[in-house]
């Protein structure tokens, strides 16, 4: 029987990296291709445990490089594409919007064109709840798949643009697609510039923890492994053309998150430092994942168990995040990676 080939873009990043490991281990009968440009947030050291597996392959490439992407698709004839690759840090999008348009919009178009040419069975586009804009502090309101797109940052605007491109390729060309929009992820291998790993690393080093504004902005937290299982389900069983929201039912203010971590680590809240608020900082995100749950998915982590597991992971893997902060992880690509073994 012919082995299925799955292309995962952005597989050296946080969510994509966890998904690559999840798929390599769960589906030894699939060939999993990890395509990543290895920009500052791309880290291959997380894949030491799978890099010698017979069903894992790494390709270093820019998704916006049409010649390379087209050639790769023609050679490998992928069955499925799961598209994570994106510039994703809101603060960086505020200072340099152009790279977000280049990668998130134009890069997505290149992948869509290549997928159309080789007739992939499914293009799964991994997006974000930030495309919906913000919610008021009203616990009865949630983002659904019918919520209008109202992005408020260059990052979320670029993701909304790519969502619409994906939809258009389904409507215009008949390319089979699904779009997933997730709430804030957390868990192992989270890049240390983000709130939870930043807080953990700073608290462990007795450093000040910056909190934007008054810390009352609310996010719905989703454990990354629950997100991986959701995407797996959508890839295999998602109805063509449908959007699925992925949320964890775990709303917390940023300040609550920081205080929880400080308490778990037995440190003082005096480490908290309130700083000037981010430009265009959305008040609240909250996902209604009912549509995905009717497909058969439920999260396995609540925030209490998930954050405790995450903190323990960072305690057990201090070497990993210290080499990320120092920049040493960028030297790991010195070895030669090839497309096929």
UniProtKB/TrEMBL annotation:
SUPFAM superfamilies: NAD(P)-binding Rossmann-fold domains. It holds the Pfam family GDP_Man_Dehyd. It catalyses: dTDP-alpha-D-glucose = dTDP-4-dehydro-6-deoxy-alpha-D-glucose + H2O. Residues 7-310 form the NAD(P)-binding domain. Keywords: Capsid protein, Lyase, NAD, Virion. Its cofactor is NAD(+). One of its GO terms (biological process) is nucleotide-sugar metabolic process. GO terms for molecular function: dTDP-glucose 4,6-dehydratase activity. The keyword Endoplasmic reticulum does not apply. Transmembrane segments: none annotated. NCBIfam families: dTDP_gluc_dehyt. Belongs to the NAD(P)-dependent epimerase/dehydratase family. dTDP-glucose dehydratase subfamily. This is dTDP-glucose 4,6-dehydratase. It comes from Rossellomorea marisflavi. The lineage of its organism: Bacteria, Bacillati, Bacillota, Bacilli, Bacillales.
């Amino acid at each position: 029987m012919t082995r299925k080939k799955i292309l995962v873009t952005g597989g050296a990043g946080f969510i994509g990296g966890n998904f690559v490991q999840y798929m390599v281990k769960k589906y030894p009968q699939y060939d999993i291709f990890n395509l990543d440009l290895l920009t500052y947030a791309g880290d291959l050291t997380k894949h030491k445990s799978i890099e010698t597996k017979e069903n894992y392959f790494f390709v270093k490439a820019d998704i916006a490089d049409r010649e390379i992407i087209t050639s790769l698709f023609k050679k490998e004839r992928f069955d499925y594409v799961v598209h994570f690759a994106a510039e994703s840090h809101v603060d960086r999008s505020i200072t340099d919007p152009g790279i977000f348009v280049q990668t998130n919009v134009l890069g997505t178009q290149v992948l869509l064109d290549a997928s159309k040419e080789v007739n992939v069975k499914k293009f799964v586009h991994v997006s974000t709840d930030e495309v919906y804009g913000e919610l008021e502090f009203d616990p009865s309101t949630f983002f659904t798949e019918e919520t209008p797109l109202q992005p408020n940052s260059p990052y979320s605007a670029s993701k909304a643009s790519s969502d619409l491109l994906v939809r258009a390729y389904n409507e215009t060309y008949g390319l089979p697609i699904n779009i997933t929009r997730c709430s804030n992820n957390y868990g192992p291998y989270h890049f240390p510039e983000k709130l939870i790993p930043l807080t953990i690393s700073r608290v462990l080093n007795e450093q000040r923890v910056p909190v934007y504004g008054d810390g009352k902005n609310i996010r719905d937290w989703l454990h990354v492994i629950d997100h991986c299982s959701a995407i797996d389900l959508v890839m295999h069983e998602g109805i063509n053309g449908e959007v699925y929201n992925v949320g964890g039912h775990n709303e917390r203010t940023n300040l609550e998150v920081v205080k929880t971590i400080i308490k778990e680590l037995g440190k003082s809240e005096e480490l908290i430092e309130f700083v000037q608020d981010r430009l265009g900082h959305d008040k609240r995100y909250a996902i209604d994942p009912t549509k995905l749950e009717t497909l058969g998915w439920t999260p396995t982590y609540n925030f209490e168990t998930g954050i405790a597991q995450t903190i323990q992971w960072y305690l057990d893997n201090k070497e990993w995040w210290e080499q990320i902060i120092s920049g040493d992880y960028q030297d790991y690509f010195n070895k030669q990676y090839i497309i096929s073994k």
